[in-house]
Write a structure and sequence with these properties.
3 domains; binds iron/sulfur cluster; NadA; iron-sulfur; 5-stranded parallel β-sheet; Rossmann fold; 444 residues; alpha/beta
């Protein structure tokens, strides 16, 4: 895979800040809408509550064992935007090459502007691997991303997640105990899952999306499976179909369905696995006839996009080019002009040589940043409601300032470590993905 890192953008002329937009809505200065007015509060107000906080995944269930963030000291909670910006810059300057800051595409603008690299989760984990000189890797993303960076970084490098409560509701939908239970039930249907048929294929190959815990990646590695990203899912499924008669795909049903459908797999051969139902809610016959068993997981951010939004965009903006992320529901992907990963979306916009109107179906922080970076185009989010990923939103600049100043003081806060029994098979699953050599999808 050819990886292109996006350099940290200069502060754009157009205000890309979702935080500012939400505060304008809350103050009444803007007539736009947000999905949760308490997004304007500090995320520390929600760290002790059993939910993901305000935003598009707030209704999802947070696992009881998920790490919780300790109280952020008052000097960070009470500092204004300019003071935090100054403190982050000062701490980074003091630390120099000893630290590298990674910012996910969906991260808020006030954090991304301090990132040495901006990208999707896999690009950032690879960037961490390349910075062997950095003692500390501060990952401004969510928990599974920091775990992946720990898998790929050196043993002496500390991966730090500024707010431990920044999980991912989709990743948390595939719990390792549920997946182990599913595997056991599948072995009752298909027999020994290690035995190959006359064509050299086992009954089931497990495939996990990058957006899953290290425990799930380890499970996949132990059982002959592989990891995929939204950029290479088709290549990975081809790899899996060469080795197995069917695929168990988790956690995102939409990425699995959209990819397999594009490869010609009929919808009636893609049963859903509901972890709370016996045999996942399917019959033995349905499972025996399946090609892809889809885990009942989804992204609350991408589930917000609808066909009605696309129809409205087309009615109001004739000639609009609609690009959505493959985590969106199938009907939305089918109705769009194109579907692709965050990197694909960015490259598609960068490659447009004439002024174009783009309606984008992905997280609003990225869409607003793209609109600011490419002012020659009109770029807007398909969802008119300002509703960022609530888990990603927990990385407030206050947490970034705190972890950097802790590092300056010689302490290493919020270190994310994957134990060797999980890390070794998880790396095998990642290495299989790299060996599959997926191409970068060309943009039209
Ligand atoms: S956008 Fe969706 S998949 Fe990505 S971190 Fe947020 S909840 Fe998870």
């Amino acid at each position: 895979m050819s990886i292109t890192f996006v350099p940290t953008p200069d502060v754009p002329a157009i205000d890309a800040s979702v935080d500012h937009a939400i505060r304008s809505i809350v103050s009444g200065a803007s007539t736009d809408a947000t999905c949760a007015t308490d997004l304007a509060l500090g995320p520390w107000d929600f760290d002790t509550r059993p939910g993901y906080g305000p935003g598009s995944s707030m209704g999802d269930v947070i696992p009881t064992g998920a790490p919780r963030q300790g109280e952020l000291p008052a000097s960070y909670r009470e500092a204004g935007e300019d003071e935090l910006d100054h403190r982050i810059r000062a701490a980074k300057a003091t630390l120099g090459d000893r630290v590298v800051v990674l910012g996910h595409f969906y991260q808020r603008e006030e954090v991304v502007r301090h990132a040495d690299y901006v990208g999707d989760s896999y690009q950032l984990a690879t960037a961490a691997k390349a910075r062997t000189d950095a003692e500390a890797i501060v990952f401004c993303g969510v928990h599974f991303m920091a775990e992946t960076a720990d898998l790929l970084s050196g043993p002496d490098q500390a991966v730090i997640l500024p707010n431990l409560a920044a999980g991912c509701s989709m990743a948390d939908m595939a719990d390792i105990d549920q997946v182990e239970d599913c595997w056991e039930q599948l072995s009752e249907v298909f027999g020994d899952l290690e035995v190959v048929d006359e064509g050299g294929r086992v009954p089931v190959i497990p495939v996990t999306y990058m957006n899953s815990s290290a425990a799930i990646k380890g499970f996949v590695g132990r059982h002959g499976g592989i990891v995929c990203t939204s950029s290479n899912a088709e290549t990975v499924l081809e790899w899996a179909f060469e080795r197995g008669r069917r695929v168990l795909f988790f956690p995102d049903q939409h990425l699995g369905r959209n990819t397999a459908k594009a490869m010609g797999v009929p919808l009636d051969r893609m049963p859903m696995w509901n972890p709370r139902a016996a045999l996942g809610g399917s019959s033995t016959t349905e499972l025996l006839d399946s090609r892809v068993i889809l885990w009942h997981g989804f992204c609350s951010v991408h589930r917000r996009f609808s066909v009605a939004q696309i129809e409205k965009a087309r009615a109001e903006h004739p000639g609009v080019r609609v690009i959505v992320h493959p985590e969106c529901p199938m009907e939305v992907v089918d109705a769009a002009d194109e579907a692709g990963s965050t990197d694909y979306i960015r490259r598609a916009i960068a490659a447009a040589t004439t002024p174009t109107t783009f309606a984008i179906g992905t997280e609003v922080n990225l869409v607003r940043r793209l609109a600011a970076q490419f002012p020659q185009h009109e770029i807007f989010c398909l969802d008119p409601v300002v509703c960022p990923c609530s888990t990603m939103y927990r990385i407030h600049p206050g947490y970034l300032a705190w972890v950097l100043e802790e590092l300056v003081a010689g302490r290493t806060p919020n270190r994310i470590t994957v134990t060797a029994d999980v890390a070794d098979p998880a790396r095998i699953a990642l290495e299989r993905m790299l060996a599959a050599k997926p191409p970068v999808v060309a943009v039209p």
